[in-house]
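Please go through the sequence line and token line underneath and see whether the fold suits the sequence. See right below:
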Amino acid sequence: DLNEMASIKPGVIQHALSDRLEDGLRCHPWPGQSSVTLSGRYKHTRTSSTEIIPSSVAQALFQKAERLFERAEDWFDVRQEIWKIAEEGKGQHRATISKKQQELLVKAGLDREFKPGEILDLTELSTACFFVIGMLSGMRSHEISSIEVGAYYETQESGEAFGWVRGESHKTFESLTEWMVPPIVGRAVSIQERIADPVRKLMEAEEREIGDKLADAGLSEKERRTLMVRASRIHADKRRIFIGRSSSKKGACPIDTSWRTRLLAFAKEFSWHLHPHQFRRTFAVFVAQNAMGDLRYLRHHYKHWTLDMTLLYARNQKQDQELYEEMLTQVKGRKVSTVEHWLDDSTPLSGGRAAQIQEYRQQREVKILKDRRALAAVLSDQVSIRSTGHSWCLSDGWGSCGGRGLYEMTRCGGCSEGLVDGSQKLVWQNLHRQQGELLGLDDIGPGGRSRVLRDIERIEKVLSDLGCEYEPVTEGTSV
């Protein structure tokens, strides 16, 4: 009944049936929201509760994954021996087989770390593959689980290799999607393919067995339906790489809850509650940090000087657009926070752009806009901000140093497009100390000594602008 429905959600009903009502709403009453969220009933769900994996934890987990990858061949050899013992022991008591397998693990030095079942499934190595793929692609859990054999491939453009991994995305209804990834993801996919090979063979054998049973004309309709459902499941899953043995010894695609358990165990030693939902948001935040942080890493990862979304879209139209939108949001937020910090009167600045930023601090525009963050938002849209690690580069690409400031660090201190703030203070202090050590050498020659003195002058100018105390270094100074 229309009246009854309208009493529940009058605005939504009026809008949905606007073309049939004389007084129907011509626009949605609350775009992008619902009456329930507006009521405040689910207010606590309006903000993201997903934690960002700290860089120190992420680094430790990557190092652990790398160690496991390096030993992958050893794991495969041990697993082959475990399988061999099980095959040769058919008909023997289970305890006898288990004892022989345990003796093999003792011989391999794994008796205190693993059980035979864990070696057969290579649980920890598989979890490392899942972690690396998730952290370096931003894929959701179900998207990683959808990866099939041969999903990783590379394309060559302008002499450089671009890595891609295929998967399915159901949350955004994009279906087949591709993600740009670094080479180590290809390595993880390859290792996981080998991990799943024995399970895939079990599934194929079961599929043949089901085919034989379905050929039986005397099969009941109920049994036939059950077998056909199982055959359909096997057909859909057998090419996936993240498949494992179920309790019934049949192949099955791991579900999200099993990944939560595995990831918790994988990160337990680092006292971090690792969850698959953390991958996507952490990836977006790390990319945002690197987009304005380590340019060399970002260029290596994406093969671009900066994170140019237009170029990425042009290369592959099947990419995860929602992920890139989230990355852009993170980049925008970081840019605004950085510019807001520069606009703070108490923030000391150095470099060619310092005077311009200091001038902005005094302009009336600061008073016209709502607050300093509003001004920062306006400015962040007008400038390109990238970090070399020792300075901020505000060049738009025309007439810049062409990247030489990444390696000749002192060049950025006096560059007209450069800016240095307190976040890079420690780098410049260490540069000052190192140049002092160089000046104390007696084998650098006149040219080298002239270069060091020039760099020291540049460095001391930056340190002075930032209000740092330092011991001046001059010709003849004893270090």
Summary: The two ends are 89 Å apart (CA to CA). DSSP finds 21 helices and eight strands in the chain. The first strand starts at residue 152 and ends at 157.
